[in-house]
Structure formats: C-alpha cells, structure tokens
Amino acid sequence: MSSFDENDAFESASLSARAMAARPMPYLDDLNPAQREAVERLDGPVLMLAGAGTGKTKALTTRIAHLLSTGRARPNEILAVTFTNKAAREMKERVGRLLGQPAEGMPWLGTFHSICVKLLRRHAELAGLKSNFTILDTDDQLRLLKQLVQAANIDDKRWPARMLAGIIDDWKNRALTPDKVPAADAGAYNNKGVDLYAQYQTRLRELNAVDFGDLLLHMVTIFRTHPDVLEQYQRWFRYILVDEYQDTNIAQYLWLRLLAGGHKNICCVGDDDQSIYGWRGAEVGNILRFEKDFPGAHVVRLEQNYRSTPHILAAASNVIRGNESRLGKELWTDKPEGEKVRLIGHWDAEEEARWICEEIDAMRSGTRGMRPFELNEIAIMVRATHQMKVLEDRFLKIGMPYRVIGGVPFYRRLEIRDAIAYFRVVVSPDNDLAFERIVNTPKRSLGEKAQQTIQRTARDHGVSLLQGARIAAEQGLIKGKGGAALRELVDGLARWNAMTRGPRIEIDDDSVIDNGAEPARYGDPEVSHIELAQIILDESGYTESYLKPLSDEELKLDPSPPRRPRDHEAAGRLENLKELVNHLGEFENLQGFLEHVSLVMDNEQDNDEPKVSIMTLHAAKGLEFPAVFLPGWEDGLFPSQRSMDETGLKGLEEERRLAYVGITRAEEVCTISFASNRLIFSGDFKGWQSMLPSRFIDELPEDHVEVLTPPGLYGGGHSAPGIETHAAQANVYNSPGWKRMQARQGQYGMSQPRESRNTVIDATAVASFALGERVFHQKFGYGEVIAIEGDKVEVAFEKAGTKKVVARFLSAKDDVPF
DNA sequence: GCACATCGGTGGCGC
DNA sequence: ACCGATGTGC
C-alpha cells in the first residue's frame, strides 16, 4: 500500500511541475461552478450527479482534457468507460476537440465490453480460452442453449431456451459463475438451470467462445483470482471515469471497484433519475450507494439545465418527485418561460396519430403562435414499439417523411447475419456455429440428416464441423446433390481462407505464426478484403439466392442476361449486402470488421432529408429535440402494467423515470397525449379496452400545463357535436389531476358541455345498469346489456356486435348526448 | 427437403 | 395483429 502512495506522490510531483510550466487552461472558463468543481477535483472518488441537459458530457470530457493537460496522466493511463459505442465516439471526438488534436492515444476509452475484449484477449488463458476467441451474439447464444436444452431432454415448450438465456444473462449480470449461484436460485428453469449454465460455460470454452456477459464475468473472475494481474491494472489505470453510472449492473460495478481499489481515483457520472434499464440488470442501487462504496466520496450536482424551458423542467421535476429512492436534484434554467407543456386526450390511437400529424403540419408552418419548426426538430417518443405502427400508417398515408430511430439494426438483418457467418467461417474455419448457419444457406440439399452426418463425422474425428464436413464429403458419406454441393462449399471455404492472407512471406522461422491473429506477419493479400467479401458472397451462391431464376424460355432468348432480384424484399436484401461490402472499406481486414460487428450495435443513419423522428423512450435517452410528442400516456401502457406487475413499486419508479426522460428530451415544446380506447391483446381478451389517463398525468403541475381542446371527434369543427361528446367522455376521469385539467378547460374558454352531468356515468354508478337494459355507447351505438362483471359490461350492440366495455362509457338510452 | 398452415406468445434493447 | 417456431402434406 505505502509503496503505491510513494509512487503516486513521486509521479504527481514531477508531473505537476511539468503542468505548472504548461499553458493556461482556457477550457475551464467555459464551465459553470458545479461543472468546474467536477473537473478540478481530480483525486479520490467523485460522483457527478448530472441531471438531463446539464452539460454532463462537457464536464466529463473537460475532466479528461484536464487530467492530460495537467500531466496527471498520460492518455493511455486513463480508463474511460461508456455503455454505447456512440457515446465512446462522441467522447473521443470532444476530447480531441478540447485538446486541439485527435484523441487517438486514448486506447482505454470505450465501452465496458470493448475494453473487456481487449483485456480478455491478453489474459484469455486465465479463463481457459485462446486469445482469438469469438464473441457470440444473442442468436448464437440461443442456438447453443437450444442444443443443450434438447440434449437434456427438456420440453422446450414448457421451458423455452429463451427463458434459460434470460436466467443465465441475469446470473452473469450479477457476476455469478455456476458454482456461485445462490441456493435461492437453484429452482430456476425447472431445477436444471444451474446445471445447464455449467454445461453452457463448458461448451463455450470448447468452442473458444464467449457471450457478452462473459466479457465482464471472465475479467471479474480473473481479477479476483489473480491479484497480480489486478494490481498491474490498478497501477496502470491512474484515473477511472465512468459514464451513465446509473446503468451499471453488478458485474460492471465489481469490475470498476476492483480496478479502482488501489488509488480510488474514480469519477462516476450519472443520473439516478434516468435509470431505465433495470430490466436489463442495471442496478440503480449502484449509484445510490456510491458514497457508502467509496468512503469520502465527493458528490457534485450538476443542476443548471441548458436544454429546456422552465415549464418543461417544472413538469419533469414534479413527476420525478413522486419517486422515493432518489439522491435528489432540482433542475433549473435561466431560459425564458416559453410554452407550457401541452396536454390533450383523444378517442383512440388512430385519432391521436391523426392529431399529431396535423399538429406537426401546423407547427411546421408556424400557425400555432410559435416559431415554425423543421421536421427534423420534431420527435415522437412512445413507450412500446407497437405504438409506432399507427403513427407510421398515418405518416405514410399523408406522405410525411419520418424515420424510426433504433429499429432493426442493420447488421441484425437476416442477409447481413448470413454474410457475416460466411466471413466468420472463412476467417476462423473452426467456428462451428457460423458454419452451422451457412452450411445449408442458401439451400444445398443438406437437410437434417446430412447435417447430422457432418456432426457425427466431426465428433468421431475430434475436429471442427468444417473439417468433419470435408471428411464426410471426401468419404462420400453424403450422397447425391447434397454431397456435391458440400464438396463445393468446403473447397470454396478453403480457397477463400487462403485469400485472407495472400502469399505467405517467410520472415524467419519463428515469426510466422499461423494462428490467424497476426495478419501483419503476412504479405499483402492478392485481393483486398472488400473484393474477397464480394467473391465469397458470389461464389457461395448466396447473392444468387436472391436473384430471380429465369425460365427456360428467357434463357433461350438471352444466354447471359442480367439477373433481377426475385421480389421487393430480395432487392432490399441485395442492397443491404452491397452496403455491407462498401462498409468493409472502413476496416483493414475481415477480422477487424468481424470484431467490430461483434461489438457494435449502432444503426446507420440514412440521408439528410428533414424527417420526423419516431422512437421508443428507451431509444430517446441522450437525445434532444426542440419539439417532442409523447403519446399513449395511459395507465397500463405507460406506466406499463407488466412492469408494475413484475417488480411492483420498483417497476413503477422506473416507469416514472422513463416519463422524466421523455419530458426532459424537449427543448421548447412538449406535448403529452392519451387515448381513451386502445386495441389490446392480452391473454384471452382481445379487443378494445377503455383506458384511463396515466397516473403520471396527475403528477404534472397544473401551473405549467395547458390543456388543448381536441378537434371534433368526427372531423367536424369546433361546434360539431363530436367535441362535446368527447369532452363529456373525457370528463369521467376521476383523478384529481384530471379534475384540475378540467377546471382549467373552463378557464380557457371551453365551456363544459351542458349535458355532461347527465350523460356521464360515474364509475360508482355501475350498479345502475341492469341485465337487459338498453344502453348507448359513443363508438358502438345502441345495445342491450347481457352480462355484468365488475366495472365491465357485456353489451350486444345492434350494429357493432357483442362487446365487453367499461361501464363508464355507457349511458342509459334516455341520456344519449345528441 | 420445401412450401404452406397453424399455433403460441407477446417490453423496453446495449454490447 | 403479427412474428417466429413448429407441424403437415407433397
């Protein structure tokens, strides 16, 4: 211990002497007092509590620049961890800008996973792996687990492999190796979870592979069992910085705590109010506990917000105030008031979508008493992906350009994954999982039986699947068409593999290491990896499989015609493949590319035409837009019922943080909306369900909210009867919040419908319906009550058929509103 | 082995 | 409603 301190003292003395002579630090003048403190307090544990839009990245990057320019650390002695590659890229770029030079020399600025890959490749043997291990993605992982589940004779119906994958991920997130799984979890997956977990780990080791969870888990295990290795890194990483600390899971937390264990120069940046990944293993407790974990920790609060107007901040603050477990923070801004948060209710999601589109059009032309907005300044954020469909339908219908942020990522698409599997087999011929994927893709008449033969041959000879396939093909174990196709595939793979290296140049006897991990030892390839990729895809017949086979007649007419894609979808897939090949240019070789795709999960952005962005609230984190729409604020959808059922108050609090994230994305205008009716699918109940406005709406502070008047229900103007119907219907909401809203409506000149007192059936009035009574429903018309269950009534409607509806939306036939 | 029908399950999504 | 996994008939 003491030798550490001496060492540190010596180093910092000499370095700060160097720093004294160094230039002034103009970047510090750019900071507010809190940010400045977060930057200048370099030693010891620091928790930077950074609210939304408070200049967190600025503080973090300036801190790195400060560490460097004061000479406290060299670039490669700083460990800076983020969650996403995007965040890592942004940080690199900003540090570079601050320093006035590219931050190339920061090899340890990256995601948890990419840094762990680097470390694990260095120490692979300590985890029973070779340094060229492959990283399995979720699909590979699932396929492997399925095999194990089947081998264990478990009914995959009752005990889906997916479930097992989830359980294992959870254990890995908690840094539990199979032998450490607590007794309380022994019953998992029909009592076989732990055993299968152990088998899975063994299998991974045999395959020289790891999954994402292993990257952290292996490193934590290595650090724990090899103090010498740990000490080496504790000394090397003089300063540690962590972004989005509220999103760390237990394994990441342990990893950090181990590394910071020596000098404790760790600066964690985060916002407990934006912890929204609990379902993925994130422990908001990590950030809440920081001061206990690191005694003497200094906490800096960044509370000045540079993004949103006071109304928006007030709304967000009031909502998040409902959470119990918080470190507590109050955002403020010196921006002018601006618009109040706008609130509006609709009949159903379709009308909600229609209204949003109309509103966007109005905002675009500046007819809302606000400045005109560009489409790319506007975003719609939903709780669940299925909410996107109705929005997209509407956008397509009226031809408004939009983009979905965070859709199916490019490389997760079928054709991309297939192509990548080809590359993997070519680069690592013993990658069995990738081989399995491509052996009969495209179809080579190598079905279940043929593949079993290959598996058996490989096992009998103790070799990889590809080797086994070669042997099986040579020995004629696979007959007919399949056999010929297999031989062709095996030959092709060997040929392409040779091309990854080009002509071999002997430097001297022991510098030629043929482990595939040292391509630099070899001479220039004859073909670039880009050309090679094209060759692989073409010669394997893969691209061909998306081309339309010509009929015999067409062949007669023209023996060498240009092939056309089979259909619209195939055309898209070919486009994607082309894009993939182009994308390869950014990498030095196929290996580099494959490493990248293992770790990268960003979606490509397309062209530059201004578009409205649609995304989930999760995808919205870290983004900001001048105008934000937040539709679907209904209890059950948001907050999500499932989330609340599963984790109770904890779940509700996470939902509330999601609401907070949503509101704080908005810079100028934030519009929240809800629908009264929604089509739902749950269990045996499919159909329309009446929805109550989200409880979060009740938590909006009334002084900062403006209730908008919905347009006519049936497309009419402001005097159409529909509007009254709608308002009357909206009136039934019983929450205090809604009552406040309602009161305010009067204030804004929209009188309460005269009939409302008569037409609206209060929730307490359910009992007043009798079997056989004739009733009216605003959407379904007249009908007769045929059953009553609690607050739901089954009605045989004259036109709409039999439906279960919530009693509140029915009126006795005498009270019809118009 | 492949094309089509049926069944079940269904949240958010990073590396 | 819709996707993916499985089952069925050719």
UniProtKB/TrEMBL annotation:
Every UvrD-like helicase ATP-binding domain range: 29-309
GO biological process, alphabetically ordered: recombinational repair; response to radiation
Domain named UvrD-like helicase C-terminal: residues: 310-622
Origin: domain of life: Bacteria
GO molecular function, one term: ATP hydrolysis activity
Residues binding ATP, per UniProt: A50, G51, A52, G53, T54, G55, K56, T57
Reactions mediated catalytically: ATP + H2O = ADP + phosphate + H(+); Couples ATP hydrolysis with the unwinding of duplex DNA by translocating in the 3'-5' direction
A Pfam family: PcrA_UvrD_tudor
InterPro entries named among the record's database cross-references: DExx_box_DNA_helicase_dom_sf, DNA_helicase_UvrD-like_C, DNA_helicase_UvrD/REP, P-loop_NTPase, UvrD-like_ATP-bd
Gene Ontology cellular component annotations, sorted alphabetically: cytosol; DNA helicase complex
Keyword vocabulary terms for this entry: ATP-binding, DNA-binding, Helicase, Hydrolase, Isomerase, Nucleotide-binding
PROSITE patterns: UVRD_HELICASE_ATP_BIND (PS51198), UVRD_HELICASE_CTER (PS51217)
Enzyme Commission identifier(s): 5.6.2.4
Similarity field: Belongs to the helicase family. UvrD subfamily.
Function: Has both ATPase and helicase activities. Unwinds DNA duplexes with 3' to 5' polarity with respect to the bound strand and initiates unwinding most effectively when a single-stranded region is present. Involved in the post-incision events of nucleotide excision repair and methyl-directed mismatch repair.
Name by which UniProt lists this protein: DNA 3'-5' helicase
